[in-house]
């Protein structure tokens, strides 16, 4: 009966592609110390030495970026003078809602720059340190775009980031979508079959009240 209660929720999680999905979620969850070093170097080269340098490790990285000022300077540095997308205050904001607002402005500017939704972190990921790996992912995407655009605003070693292969990516997602539809179809089929095979007592409403 335990399985019977769990199965509807499990079905909602959508298709999982076995190994590749598992590896992917590990990568998504994992905060990468080496990546941190590369991102710190890039931010310092891109923004100039006055942004300082964080303490090593996830917490140091979080504290360094948390008030949104360095992130804002970073995205501004990818634009020519006179068209910077984010207003950076003279004094770093000390009030929490102001800091969150600053981070939100960075996120909006990063999206306008071309970072796709799935690569964007949420403000709480950074603010509460919920998912610093997601913050890294956003910065990697931003760096990759800057290298790909090759418009003279990227500073640093281009090899720090992979160029984004737009065309290949689109075909790839198309085939993934097909695969996804197929897997979901199968899952729905088996769930339907299972629910009629005595799990819910031949179509009677399930009695979960104990």
Notes on the protein architecture:
The chain is an all-alpha fold. The chain has a domain at about 20-160: Calponin-like domain (Actin-binding Protein, T-fimbrin, domain 1). The protein has helices at about 1-10, 20-30, 35-45, 60-65, 70-75, 95-115, 125, 130-150, 165-200. α1 packs antiparallel against α9 (about 165-200), α3 (about 35-45) crosses α8 and α5 packs parallel to α6. Mean pLDDT is about 80; it is low at about 1-15 and about 190-200.
Number of helices: 9
Shape category: globular
Radius of gyration: 22 Å
Order of helices and strands: HHHHHHHHH
Q: Biggest β-sheet, characterized?
A: none
CATH topology-level name of the domain at 22-158: Actin-binding Protein, T-fimbrin, domain 1
The end-to-end distance, rounded to whole angstroms, is 12 Å
What is the CATH H-level superfamily of the domain at 22-158? Calponin-like domain
* CATH class type of the domain at 22-158: Mainly Alpha
Structural class: mainly alpha
The number of E-state strands comes to: 0
* Portion in helices: 55-70%
* Portion in strands: under 5%
Calculate the mean pLDDT score and round it: 80
The stretches of 5 or more residues where confidence is low (pLDDT under 50) are: 1-17, 192-201
């Amino acid at each position: 009966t335990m399985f019977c209660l769990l199965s509807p929720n499990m079905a909602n999680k959508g298709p999982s592609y076995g190994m590749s999905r598992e590896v992917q979620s590990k990568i998504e969850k994992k905060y990468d110390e080496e990546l941190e070093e590369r991102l710190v170097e890039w931010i310092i080269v891109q923004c100039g030495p006055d942004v300082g340098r964080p303490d090593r490790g996830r917490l140091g990285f979080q504290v360094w970026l948390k008030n949104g000022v360095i992130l804002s300077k970073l995205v501004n540095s990818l634009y020519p003078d006179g068209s910077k997308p984010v207003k950076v205050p003279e004094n770093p904001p000390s009030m929490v809602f102001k800091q969150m607002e600053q981070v939100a402005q960075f996120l909006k500017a990063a999206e306008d720059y071309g970072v796709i939704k799935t690569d964007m972190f949420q403000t709480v990921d950074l603010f509460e340190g919920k998912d610093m790996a997601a913050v890294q992912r956003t910065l990697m995407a931003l760096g990759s775009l800057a290298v790909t655009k090759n418009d003279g605003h990227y500073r640093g070693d281009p090899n720090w980031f992979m160029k984004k292969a737009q065309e290949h990516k689109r075909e790839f997602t198309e085939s993934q979508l097909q695969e996804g539809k197929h897997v979901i179809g199968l899952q729905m089929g088996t769930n339907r079959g299972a629910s009629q095979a005595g799990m819910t007592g031949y179509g009677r409403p399930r009695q979960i009240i104990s």
